[in-house]
């Protein structure tokens, strides 16, 4: 879990400034759901994206 928060801070939080809390929430949601959970390679699953790992498991 600590690794996730480090990655989040390095790849998003320290790179951006938001005018409102709503903008920050939207950016965080977009990062997590749109990039981190779908397109970013993860070492725990053999450096595949979650989508690739799911496709391999379901055939």
UniProtKB/TrEMBL annotation:
Could you mention a single GO BP entry for this protein? DNA integration
Concerning SUPFAM superfamilies, the annotation shows: Ribonuclease H-like
Source organism superkingdom: Bacteria
- InterPro entries named in the record: Integrase_cat-core, RNaseH-like_sf, Transposase_IS3/IS150/IS904
Q: Which residues form the Integrase catalytic domain?
A: 2-54
Cited Pfam families: rve_2 (PF13333)
Provide the protein name: Integrase catalytic domain-containing protein
What is the protein's species of origin?
A: Sphingomonas sanxanigenens DSM 19645 = NX02
- Which lineage? Bacteria, Pseudomonadati, Pseudomonadota, Alphaproteobacteria, Sphingomonadales
């Amino acid at each position: 879990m600590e690794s996730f928060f480090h990655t989040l801070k390095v790849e998003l939080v320290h790179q951006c400034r938001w005018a409102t809390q709503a903008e920050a929430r939207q950016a965080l949601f977009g990062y997590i759901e749109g990039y981190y959970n779908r397109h970013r390679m993860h070492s725990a699953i053999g450096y595949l994206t979650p989508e690739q790992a799911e496709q391999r498991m379901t055939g």
